[in-house]
Design goal:
By secondary structure, the chain is of the alpha+beta class. It has 4 domains: about 35 residues, no CATH class; about 130 residues, no CATH class; about 70 residues, no CATH class; about 50 residues, no CATH class. Helices cover about 10% and strands about 20% of the residues. It has 4 helices and 16 strands. Strands 3, 4, 5, 6, 7, 8, 9 and 10 form an 8-stranded antiparallel β-sheet that branches. Strands 1-2 form a two-stranded antiparallel ribbon. Strands 11-12 form a two-stranded antiparallel sheet. The N terminus is likely disordered.
């Protein structure tokens, strides 16, 4: 059996174990065999990205210099890690993406293209919510995007990228022996004249830190609101107390700023019209605003609304009714010393009486 730092054991007649992974683990330490598996056949590693013409807001769009039909604009919530000058080894155009039980496509492709392309003109933050990505294809690195063929524009386009890992890729992980610093350049010629970075002596610790940062970023990306994504939610919100709208930037420090027509980005709690255009949402403040349906006048509350719903209504200081001319009176009230008449009202189908007396 192979033993660490000793090779093959002599008392085992130098026989090679059948489990290569176990042998490597014995010789080099636990986990090394898994590290090596990552690089097995890595020159043939590929990944696929599918452009779906039916995806939300997907389209064939213009290039960065407004040339028509130059870039694939991927649908919303289609994440990918393609970067500039990534190598596309194959483009397959399909009429559908139906697969059988083995995961193989059931129909022949509409067209295939084995031309070596490069990802160019990559753009992030596209679309109305700024959560879409787009790129074009060129036959040379940093080249001019090709015009996307007409046959591709209405079909599924499967882009196969080469994910080969070369020695050069691995060498670039380590800190360069010579930093591109101002001293090595012969002087400081500006911010773009130098760079420096260090992943440290312990690659495992550095990668764990990176992975932790990515996990935290992904969590915050999902949980926190973003200016580049919709903040709509169908979650039920239950309040067991009061709710208060904060205004740390003083956006509502004047009554005139409560008008959304003049200040559409003023913060607050709004009641919105769900059927209004998403780019021009109709909304009115729920409270603390001159846009409330009730307004205070001298000694009274008024509203222009034709339909008024009242929950628990309390007249703490009594209520006074003016302008009544009694033509016919009937009935009486229990306390004739204070009230002389009663006035019938109907609230939600229930008849109530207001007891009236002289002011």
């Amino acid at each position: 059996m192979a033993q660490r730092n000793q090779g093959l054991a002599r008392d085992n007649n130098l026989s090679e174990p059948l489990d290569d992974g176990q042998a490597i683990t014995n010789l080099a330490g636990a986990g090394v065999d898994q590290d090596l598996f990552i690089f097995i056949n890595n020159l043939n590693n590929t990944s696929e990205l599918i452009w779906d013409p039916n995806a939300l807001q997907a389209s064939i769009t213009t290039s960065s210099n407004s040339a028509a039909n130059k870039r694939f604009l991927f649908g919303q919530e289609v994440p990918f890690t393609f970067t500039t000058n990534d190598v596309i080894t194959n483009v397959t155009v399909r009429n559908n993406l139906d697969v059988d039980s083995d995961g193989e496509y059931t129909d022949s492709p509409h067209a295939t293209d084995d031309t070596k392309y490069y990802v160019v003109d990559l753009a992030l933050g596209q679309g109305s919510f700024r959560n879409q990505r787009a790129f074009g294809l060129a036959t040379t690195e940093n080249g001019t995007p090709i015009t996307i063929p007409t046959a591709w524009r209405t079909r599924f386009v499967v882009l196969t990228r080469s994910d080969a890992v070369t020695q050069d890729n691995i060498v670039r992980i380590a800190t360069p022996e010579i930093q591109n610093s101002a001293a090595n350049n012969g002087g400081d010629i500006g911010a773009a004249s130098s760079f420096s970075y260090s992943i440290g002596e312990n690659f495992n610790a550095a990668f764990e830190t990176i992975e932790s940062n990515v996990d935290i970023a992904n969590f915050k990306r999902v949980q926190k609101y973003s200016e580049t994504a919709s903040v709509a939610s169908d979650r039920d919100i239950k309040l067991e107390g009061s709710i208060r709208s904060g205004d740390p930037d003083g956006a509502n420090d004047a009554a005139s700023k409560l008008n959304r027509d003049t200040y559409p980005t003023a913060p607050g709690v709004y009641i919105t019209d769900p059927f209004s255009d998403i780019t021009d949402i109709e909304a009115t403040r729920a409270f603390s605003t001159s846009a409330n349906p009730w307004s205070e006048a001298t000694g009274k509350l008024t509203t222009p609304s034709e339909q008024v719903n009242i929950g628990n209504l309390l007249f703490a200081d009594g209520i006074e009714v003016d302008g009544l001319t009694i033509t016919t009176a009937s009935g009486n009230v229990k306390d004739s010393g204070e009230f002389t008449h009663k006035l019938g009202v109907n609230i939600d189908g229930v008849e109530y009486f207001l007891c009236l007396g002289p002011a």
